[in-house]
Amino acid sequence: MIYLLLVLWLFLAFCIIGEKRNIRIVIYLCVFSFISSISFLILGSPDAAMAEAAIGTFTGIFFIICFEKHRELRFNEKNASVFSRDEDPPDIDDERAVQALLKLRKKARARTRGKHNAKSILQRYLAPGLFSILLFILFIVFLPGGEANPYLRNQFLTQFSEHVGGENAVTAIYLAYRVYDTLFEALVLVIAVVAVIHMSYSSDILVKGGKPSHVGQYVVVVSVLRVICAIVLLFGFYLIMNGHITAGGGFQGGLFIAAFFICRYLVYDIYDLPITKVIRMEELVFLSTVIFAVLIVFLGTINHLPPVFHIVYMIVMNFLIGLKVACGFLILFYRYIAIERR
Amino acid sequence: MEILGNIIIILGIIFMLFGVIGIFRYQNFFVRILIASKIDTVGALTVVIGLAVKHGFSFFSLRVVLLLVLMFIINPMVTHIIARSAYESGQNIDGSVDDIEEGNE
Amino acid sequence: MYILWAMLIFLIPYLVLIVRGPTVWDRILGMSLVSTKIIIIVIIFSSLNHLDYLTDFAIIYVLLGFIVTFFITTFLVTRKKREK
Q1: For residue A24, which residues of chain B lie inside 8 Å, CB to CB?
Q2: What's the domain range around C14?
Q3: Rounded to two decimals, what is the model's pTM?
Q4: Chain C: residue nearest B55 by CA?
């Protein structure tokens, strides 16, 4: 059963590689993420499956916005270039001088290449080769023979409920044993948001009364979406609150809270949230996440607390991560949309 | 109860089979989307109802009924969006292929 | 069990529709069909293995598939109107 899904998966992957048109690639990507999500689910990792489904659709939305913006820019350039023709490049009169210059350049290049060849083999290939041989020898020498060490397995898989609490082992691992991983993932998202903000800098970011788009024109769909909006927000909070019992958690719930604002854009055609305040809020939430994790886990206070507080700790941590992820994706979405409509 | 559920599920699968045959048979896009709505709405809803009947009255079937309400609202809407936007962006009704230019970049 | 196999085999013609379909709208239609089929697979899988919490996944697929389809179609229509 899983083999059929994997064959379809590979087929779609090769389709994505061979295709050149953008919209087709986005559609293939969405279907690819759906199929990979269902195969993760059947292979037995529901948390990764949920994250994969949410991420696949969100990247599809962002890619569509970016392609449309790029296409609009190119369309404007093509129209503009009819009126202002480029000047021809200046002719060079003296052909001899040019040819002499070319010869000189060719000679210099050949000389440097000759010098380069002798050393570059040593420099490029010898050191990495030696290093990889050394690594291979080390790997063979220290290969664990006999029985595997059961200590880590026991600690992670059978005692997580005493140490941390909750029923989902994955949540226990990423919020207690591996909390620094989670912190660094949050940091990566912060860096991505900062990079997008600085790359797409423009002073008039929130233009009001821009070009009218066709979002919000379908009366039937919009009146249905107005109801579904609320369901999306409630479902996001449900995922965050039940992160320690079922699959789900901060990341997925945060994505759903961001999806609520995308629905709001689709319904009312507005994006008037004060974006500077959202950025400030994201920084504060990230800082409080780090401080909370350091206070509870790194200083070891979690071992002295009664076991009821473990679940409280997990819920609060999931809530903070969810808020942070929601703010990050909201900033990305508003940036892209505002620049697309500029 | 199980036999009734199985019968309903097989009915849904037959609906889906007709839909799949119809998708590959006709050349006109609007005929195709009309037939595809049989898969998306009728077939899927029938299969889910059959699963809920097969399970009897339990917590699982309560959740499935909640899902059924969502699917009952959303799935016809998706077909409606696709058909309407295809019509608005210049897909001809008489069947000649007038594809929207996809941008070769 | 037979339903799971039937749904998995139904995935193949939809993928053919997505890859071959002569217009963009066929591809988007195929995407929504695949998402519906995957919802049914999730429900069947959870009922076979008695895992109740997996029905959350079905709700996720319903909502996200709807949002993505709406987004792509509205952007295509907007582009067409703009370039006319």
Answers
A1: 102
A2: 2-83
A3: 0.80
A4: C47
